[in-house]
């Protein structure tokens, strides 16, 4: 598909985004963190998607699943979902638990067309989603973010034009902020509140995506080693 065709799909979905909570707080019991890791096998690009589901109340891991495969879509800035979504969907299909919320290590509404991976994936997962990125993505290539105060819970809105695209949120004192944006069917206020609630003392990154990130490194090495042993 051409970039024009990919952009058309994003623009069609954009009109369906909801920036309001589609659930009550009591309904939110399990949260899934989603992340991917890449590597090369000769000239072929491979990736593994790892999903870690935790119990919101206890923060204990309920389930872990992964799916690995070849990446056929080249990297094009602004169209990451088209590369990653096929593996995300296959990994989700393996889950025995039905998560109430998916949190992605990436962006959602903080995107030129508001269609980062967290938002795009929501239309296929049919669940509320949040994007929480470790690094800042300039949705319009010009707008930078303002550093929040050096206190846990401090944030600054990322405003482009007159619209809030996301927030720079400091989850702990003396750490870099994370970048929170709505995926779909959730408000930015709730997304930030949950980001704070789900962040433990061991990291400035929320537990679901931190565990998913750690799992991608474990699985990538295991898959590469297995491949080498069977060559």
How would you describe the overall organization of this protein?
- The chain is α+β, with helices and mostly antiparallel strands and 231 residues long.
- It has one domain (3-229): archaeoglobus fulgidus dsm 4304 fold.
- 29% of the residues lie in helices and 27% in strands.
- It has five helices and eight strands, in the order αβββαβαββββαα.
- It has an eight-stranded mixed sheet with strand order 3-2-1-4-5-8-7-6, sandwiched between helices.
- α2 runs parallel beside α3.
- The radius of gyration is 17 Å and the shape is globular.
CATH architecture classification: 2-Layer Sandwich
* Rg result: 17 Å
Order of helices and strands: HEEEHEHEEEEHH
Taken together, the total number of domains comes to: 1
**Which superfamily, in CATH terms, is the homologous superfamily?**
archaeoglobus fulgidus dsm 4304 superfamily
CATH top level assignment: Alpha Beta
Give the end-to-end Cα distance, rounded to a whole number of Å. 34 Å
Strand order of the largest sheet: 3-2-1-4-5-8-7-6
Helix content: 25-40%
CATH topology grouping: archaeoglobus fulgidus dsm 4304 fold
Give the overall average pLDDT: 95
Tell me the total number of β-strands: 8
Unreliable stretches: none
Main structural class:
alpha+beta
Strand fraction equals 25-35%
Annotation field: number of helices:
5
Describe the main β-sheet briefly. 8 strands, mixed
Shape: globular
């Amino acid at each position: 598909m051409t970039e024009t065709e990919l952009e058309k799909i994003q623009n069609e979905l954009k009109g369906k985004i909801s920036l309001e909570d589609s659930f009550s707080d009591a309904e939110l019991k399990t949260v899934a963190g989603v992340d991917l890791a890449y590597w090369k096998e000769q000239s072929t690009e491979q990736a593994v998607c790892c999903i870690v589901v935790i119990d919101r109340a206890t923060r204990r891991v309920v389930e872990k699943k992964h799916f690995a495969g070849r990446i056929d879509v080249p990297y094009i800035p602004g169209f990451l979902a088209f590369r990653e979504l096929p593996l995300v969907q296959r990994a989700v299909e393996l889950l025995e638990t039905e998560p109430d919320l998916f949190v992605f290590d990436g962006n959602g509404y903080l995107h030129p067309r508001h269609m980062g991976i967290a938002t795009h994936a929501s239309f296929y997962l049919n669940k509320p989603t949040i994007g929480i990125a470790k690094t800042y993505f300039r949705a319009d290539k010009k707008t930078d973010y303002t550093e929040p105060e050096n206190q846990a819970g401090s944030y600054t809105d990322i405003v482009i034009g007159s619209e809030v695209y996301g927030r720079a949120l400091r989850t702990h004192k003396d750490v870099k902020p994370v970048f929170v944006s709505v995926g779909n069917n959730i408000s930015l206020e709730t997304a930030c509140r949950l980001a704070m609630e789900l962040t433990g003392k061991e990291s400035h990154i929320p537990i679901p995506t931190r565990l998913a990130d750690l799992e991608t490194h474990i699985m990538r090495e295991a898959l590469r080693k297995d491949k080498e042993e069977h060559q």
